[in-house]
UniProtKB/TrEMBL annotation:
SUPFAM superfamilies tied to this protein: BB1717-like
Hydrolase recorded as keyword: yes
Protein known as: Uncharacterized protein LOC109723198 isoform X1
Comp. bias intervals (Polar residues): 261-280
Chain intervals for the UniProt region annotation (Disordered): 256-316, 340-370
Domain of life: Eukaryota
Pfam families referenced in this protein's UniProt entry, alphabetically: SRAP
Species of provenance: Ananas comosus
Keyword DNA-binding listed: yes
Family listed: Belongs to the SOS response-associated peptidase family.
Record-linked InterPro entries: SRAP (IPR003738), SRAP-like (IPR036590)
Composition bias, Basic and acidic residues: 282-301
Amino acid sequence: MCGRVRCTLHVHQVARACGLTSGDDASSLPARQMDRYRPSYNVSPGACLPVVRKAAVGEEAAPAIHCMKWGLVPSFTKKTDKPDHYKMFNARSESIKEKTSFRRLLPTNRCLVAVEGFYEWKKDGSKKQPYYIHFEDQRPLVFAALYDSWSNSEGEILYTFTILTTRCSAALEWLHDRMPVILGNKDSIDIWLNSCAMNFEAVLRPYEGPDLVWYPVTPAVGKRSFDCPECIKEIQLKPTGDKLISMFFTLKPAAADQSEKGGTQKPSSELSQTHYSTCSVKGEHLSNEYEEPKKDEKTVQSDDFASPKMETGQQEICGIKREFEEITADYKPKVENISSWPCSPAKKKERTTKNAGERQASLLSYFGKK
């Protein structure tokens, strides 16, 4: 589909893009209702754009530039109805010969729409990212279109048009399944606009030229009120969740150099698990990024005390147990003979008597008392 375009072209640029004139002077070309045209970076259905159409019955044979509203309103629409420009702002080129709204327009109501580029949205779950699509050399895009006229209850005549679409090109299949019919050369423009025959199917095909380029733009383009040069400014996309995960498990340059030298290097996932176990024992702050342990620090590594056959959970338990034993060994109190501690003579005699009384009595002392 094609639902947003950029058109800031002057009348002479539109005429030159559609092959009507090679110069910058468009004053000699018939033009109608051009006072309604407002150049915009963000044109949506319901807005007026300059359209190049074939001469109508009773007019001169030369094509004319006519400002029309984007969004077809068929001539058989009731005069009392309110026009809905979003209902038919696009027409599938594969079925224009079948639907009444478009089939009757093919013989005489073919037209051209010149714009500088169009927007398309890439769906990613609930999010949509817009892209700006244009020619690399900045020349205008020329779309195939159909137009019609409708009279309301007050007798006012409204001219409207619809842009034809086709299947997407191979280069843009990742973005969308449809794209506007782009007439990339003068021959295709003449066949669509001036040919009286109905053999125009050859030009209603995807544009496969390599000069059609694109880049991401701000999501603010989705608002119709957002209309400024920022609409077409290229932006840098933030990495998605999958990309962030892959960046988290990417080896640092030092680790990559070691693997190139032939050294044994653990996978990034094992490195992250080892660092997590070390921080848990030491009580350090856990970070989301792996850091290589320094040589001058005492860091508990799972490979220092665990067998290669052990599971990861067993290695962590053994590491914590060994660390606890080493710490408690450094703080084990020494037991000394309290009798050797310095004190006063009276206190020393009391301590000696107490210790003697607490000694276990022998058999000789027991029978000697009797």
